[in-house]
């Protein structure tokens, strides 16, 4: 099992604050499965408006955090950095379900397993939990593409 600290995550994902939603990789089996975490804090910019009297992490951001976790699973080998002309795209989602709200102070544990990789499209089953309780799950599809600068 491998792990990654925030510095290694930043080398592999193009996202930056406030949109980098993976703080650490706890476990990684190349091409098979990953377990990562996101510390949810009250000073996240989305809590200002979602919702002022009852802060709740938006479901779409939980799905984005799962997509970022999934991208880390198989797209960049250990020791390599993200090429400046490469981006990951979240291209599909099926069977998304939300089980309970995620609030400031929660630690979101995200897990993804590789279901298949064909023709540059990667399919994952991903789920997120807080304190061992499932909060959301979905089947995600991502791709990697070179972009013009």
Automatic annotation (TrEMBL):
GO terms for biological process: fatty acid biosynthetic process; lipid A biosynthetic process. The keyword Chaperone does not apply. The keyword Signal does not apply. It catalyses: a (3R)-hydroxyacyl-[ACP] = a (2E)-enoyl-[ACP] + H2O. PANTHER family: 3-HYDROXYACYL-[ACYL-CARRIER-PROTEIN] DEHYDRATASE. Involved in unsaturated fatty acids biosynthesis. Catalyzes the dehydration of short chain beta-hydroxyacyl-ACPs and long chain saturated and unsaturated beta-hydroxyacyl-ACPs. This is 3-hydroxyacyl-[acyl-carrier-protein] dehydratase FabZ. The lineage of its organism: Bacteria, Pseudomonadati, Pseudomonadota, Betaproteobacteria, Burkholderiales. The gene is fabZ.
